[in-house]
Amino acid sequence: MLTQAVGSKVVGFGSQIILAKLLIPEQFGTYMFALSLATIVNVIQHAGVGEILIHRQRREDLWVNAAVWLSAAMGLVAMLLVLGAAPIAGMIRHDEPLIVRVVSLVSVMALLSALSIVPTALLQIRMRQRSLGVVGLVSTLVGAAVSILLAWRAEAWGVPGLG
pTM higher than 0.85, yes or no? Predict the structure, then answer.
């Protein structure tokens, strides 16, 4: 788990450096704004479903199905909240034309994050620390790679000003 924590921080820091090089400052600010908005909603969506499942682990078979549906529903609501906030962000930050598109794209993270709540809790119940660490590190690597790829290929997709 220590390797996963350190590795995730190093990958996260490195990806931020690469994104800062690829994006002009205004676009990097837009990306960080969208990421901050999604993170706030992400905290709300993790309203204890995994923790309840861990607490009720002796009868997990009774709780898993409900936890999957509840976390999926909360992820969908979180995604819709972020999507609903995209036009508002566009009005607030009207000087950044990409903000609505970026916030909309980042909203998918809420749903994907919600779908990982129950499997993560089940790994914790079974005390599969190595698996948790590997999943966490791979998740960070994939997220960083997708962010860098999107920034790198953005000009080909019609977003000017990028390398």
Answer: no
- What is the largest distance, in Å, between two alpha-carbon atoms of the chain? 55
Are 73 and 141 spatial neighbours (Cβ–Cβ below 8 Å)? no
Residues 6+ apart with CB under 8 A from 159: 98
- pLDDT tens string 98-145: 788 888 888 888 888 888 888 988 888 888 888 888 888 888 899 889
* d(C-alpha 152, C-alpha 163), whole Å: 6
Determine contact, residues 89/37, Cβ cutoff 8 Å: yes
- Is the alpha carbon torsion for 67, 73, 77, 83 positive or negative? positive
Per the rule left: phi > 0, alpha: psi between -120 and 50, beta: everything else, 159 is beta
Cα 9 to Cα 141: distance, rounded to the nearest angstrom? 10
Which residue do the tokens 């995604």 mark?
A: 79
Nearest CA to 46 out of 135, 141, 121 is that of 121
Cα-flanking dihedrals φ and ψ of residue 77, to 5°? -65, -45
What does the pLDDT look like over 72-108, one tens digit per residue? 888 898 889 888 988 888 888 877 777 888 888 888 8
